[in-house]
Structures are given as structure tokens and as C-alpha cells.
Design brief:
This is DOCK1 protein. The protein is built from 9 helices and no strands. The protein has 159 residues and is mainly α.
Length: 159
Amino acid sequence: REFLRAINQFATTLTKMFLCNGNFELQLWNNYFHLAVAFLTQDSLQLENFSQAKRNSILAKYGDMRATIGAAIRDMWYNLGHHKIEFIPGMVGPILEMTLVPELELRRSTIPIFFDMMLCEYQLTKGFSRFEDEILHKLDSEVEGGRGDEQYKQLFESM
């Protein structure tokens, strides 16, 4: 919970001081996204790997922090405005890794980032080949590694 609070404080500072008025700091924003995804995907938060009793205990005490940080990542992505293009294709893999976590609320809030990435690249280049190449490469790698499930596929297609 303390790490989540620290990450949220980092996000607040980034948004206030390193987004507008020529103060944009690509590396700080990149660090935020990688830190937040690493937090979200850490083994100790993967509730589906625990017994039902332990899962219920964690949920009662802390809630599902994955959904919380996933929504924060999504909000920070949309805060980027015209800077989003600087994170394509570099953030495709980390966002994909995050959306593959088998938690429905997290998936619903973060899968749309992919479509926003495509739109962002399309508006600038009239295509989205950089995004397409990266997502196909990363998705192939993740699926071969045993990640992804039928629910993910169906949700991705329906969205």
C-alpha cells in the first residue's frame, strides 16, 4: 500500500511539474510507466495465485491494488496529450504485459490504451505500422510464454 501511495505521489508531481509549459521530461514519464507496470505485475499482487482464503483476506484489507494502479496508468496515459507519440512503440510491451494480468476490471480499463496508441500514430503518420509491428512481436512472445487466455481474446476483440 505504501508503494502505491508513493507511485501516486510521483504521478501527481509529474503531472504538475513535468507535463506542460515546456517542462516535459520524457525519461521521468517513462520511469513512471515502467515503475507502475512493474508494481502491478509483481508476484505478490497476483491474487489468482493464492488460495481463496488468502485472496479474500488481502481483498478485505487492501482491495485489488492492480485495478487501482491500472486506472492510474490509464489516466496518466491520457494526460500525456500530444506527447503520447513519444511512447510508441516503447510502451506497447509494458502495457501489453499489464493487460494480460487476468483481472477483468484492469483489462477493461487498460485495453483501450492500445486503440488510443493506434489513433495517435495514425493521426501523425496516416498509418500505425510501428504500433502494429511491436504489438504483434510482443503478443507472440507473451502467448508463446503461456500468457493470455480466452477471456482476454474475447474482451480484446469485443472492445
